[in-house]
Design a protein that fits this description.
Elements lengths: L11 H10 L5 H20 L12 H13 L1 E2 L4 E2 L2 H20 L26 H9 L6 H16 L3 H5 L15 E6 L5 E6 L1 H11 L25 H14 L8 H14 L4 H8 L4 H4 L3 H15 L6
Helix pairs in contact: 1-2, 2-4, 6-8, 6-10
């Protein structure tokens, strides 16, 4: 690590180049980062410390900047910045510190920047294992379309795929040999980023059963059996959402059960098995850990419950 003699503002252009080359961000994303970082650079100027070098940045500076954001207000509404908006500015600054670390420029670790806690944090809905078993048991697998649906449900829970990723799968990607017990394939996920997904032994079993019924030459892995002749047979997100909702009602599960709830269930199950957030980030194909942190409150609640049980305090 070296101590750069260039003040922080003079690193902005190199940072934007790094976002493009190392992170592969679009020009629009770079523009957003530049806009969010300008707030910090303006704050440096206001406080007459625009000559501050990366290694001179301290936790005290970060704390004062966070306080500045918390007291800032939107000119139009005259209201203070939302916590989520404050976090955009802080995430941009985190990325700048990550850039310094990547370029071996001595500076404060990015982890020192804590995000503002929001009361409007996303509520993550998920199914527990008992509820999932009820859902899986509903499709009548003696019917070809419901056998397909069982394979879809198992695949969603096993892989944590997004619905768009699931419907884009092709048969040629699922190479099953007689000895294949479980399966891993590479898909192109959100943002055109490749990642590996894993089908469990159980999910592979249902995929095999489903594929053995396919006598057609359709390219898509999951097809619609009710389409008119000559029309595309690849399933749509809407058709899968409707099927899952129907099965959820039949199983007595929440009406809010969707393909994305299956993804949340996959994530929650892994966390309960002890998987850390960074590993989960890889499984989910999130570009940054920030997106994966929506699950933090789940693990925090679990740890709290374990602590209460250990200390003999009943949950309220």
């Amino acid at each position: 690590m070296e101590k750069s003699q260039k003040p922080i503002p003079y690193h902005l252009n190199d940072f934007l180049d790094w976002l493009e080359i190392e992170r592969g961000l679009s020009s629009k994303s770079q523009e957003n980062y530049s806009r969010f970082l300008k707030k910090f650079l303006d704050w440096l100027k206001i406080n007459k410390i625009e000559q501050l070098k990366p290694h001179e940045l301290t936790s005290e500076h970060i704390w004062k900047y966070r306080a500045y954001l918390a007291r800032e207000y939107t000119p139009k509404t005259k209201k203070s910045l939302k916590k989520t908006t404050q976090n955009y500015y802080l995430i941009a600054l985190r990325s700048l510190l990550n850039f310094f670390a990547d370029r071996d420029i001595f500076s404060l670790p990015a982890e020192k920047i804590k995000l503002a806690k929001s009361k409007d944090a996303r509520v993550v809905s998920f199914l527990n294992l008992e509820q999932l078993e009820k859902l899986f048991a509903v499709p009548d697998v003696s019917k070809i379309n419901e056998l397909r649906d069982r394979a879809i449900l198992e695949a969603l829970f096993s892989t944590g795929m997004r619905i768009a990723e699931l419907i884009s799968l092709n048969r040629e990607q699922i190479k099953l040999k007689p000895e294949t017990k479980d399966l891993e394939i590479v898909i192109i996920g959100k943002g055109s980023r490749p990642r590996t997904i894993y089908f469990s032994k159980r999910a592979t079993h249902w995929l095999r059963n489903y594929l053995e019924t396919r006598k057609d030459k359709e390219k898509a892995l999951f097809i619609n059996y009710k389409n008119k002749k000559g029309t595309p047979r690849r399933l749509t997100p809407r058709s899968i959402e409707k099927s899952i909702k129907k099965y959820a009602i039949m199983a007595g599960l929440p009406l809010t059960t969707t393909p994305h709830v299956m993804r949340h269930s996959f994530s929650t199950n892994l966390l309960e098995q002890g998987v850390d957030l960074r590993t989960l980030q890889e499984f989910l194909g999130h570009k940054t850990l920030v997106a994966t942190q929506i699950y933090t409150h789940i693990t925090s609640k679990r740890l709290r419950d374990i602590h209460r049980k250990f200390h003999g305090i009943k949950n309220k």
